[in-house]
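Thread title: Can someone regenerate the structure for this chain?

I was given the following input by a collaborator and told the matching structure tokens would be attached. They weren't. Posting the sequence so someone can regenerate them.
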Amino acid sequence: METNTEVNKISNWKKFEKLLGVIAGIAAIAGILGVYYQIHTKSTKIEFQIISKDYLTSNNNIDGLKSNFEYEGFSVKNLWLLKIKLINTGDVTLFGKGDAKSILDSNLIFYFNPNLQVLNKIDLISTNLPDQNLSLINSTTLSFNFQQWRKNEYAIYSLYIKSDTNNISLLPTSKRIIKEGDIYIFDLTNNQIKLKQPLLDIIFKPTFSLIGRILSFLFVFLIFILSTILIFKAIFQWFVYLKWKKNNYQKFNAYILKLNESEIKNDVEKIVFKRMQNKYAKNPLLLPFKSSIWKNFDGDKIPEENTLTNWKEFWKFILILIGIYLAIITTILGLWIY
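Best answer:
Regenerated them for you:
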């Protein structure tokens, strides 16, 4: 009932607050789940990193001067010295031996381009991983074996690679040999950035990941537009009220305090006014916008009904606003970026 002031005002704010809370909650849950999944989901993965790459057969720039290179008595056209790092970047300990082993074969195998030749000179530079070994199966294949490989344990090796052409990829490939895990291969000398996959890419296949991105973008955009409209409308109404209050409050306060309940014709309004008179005088927003009490007020009526009724609600509203936009940001980070 429009004359039931206290109930109406509280109800209006509660409904508005609930709507914003639902919007913020949906966005926040989606974003937090995405970020939480990325941070806390235990992954099983190994990285093969090329951490340095030196081309040892650079020709000079002097006209007419030719260079011929040999390695251990054999002629080479192109020779590289690589430093590689094998590291457990996952969250679980891997086992290479025994009944509980984490790999489908006896070793991790890395395959280089057939036009490359890995020379039989592999040196261990540093490691904190015991009981491991990197060996050469043939001129294009490396084998790495281990017993127990904990998180962040690594081994760094140097090796030589030769080829007849210098325009060739030095990155090897590997099969999916880790149970419920993956092997990632990076050339860090090319400044490759290793980012966690977005949640949408983890959950869906590439085609459906694109569809998921489009739908989630539309959903987040809709939330953003809806919340922005509600937010700016409420803030605008609040500042319109502050302007009204500056010019009319004293007159309104005097009018309410002098008003006799016998002057009010509506019986329900009369009962409510008797209980709310002092509250109306202190806070004009508690008086319903359509109340007949406004008709005899010798001043400007509040321009429109306001969702917010006091400064406490205003700052509470601002906190909800911040929560909504932070939720939208976390949604973007959780679903699309990280």
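DSSP finds five helices and twelve strands in the chain.
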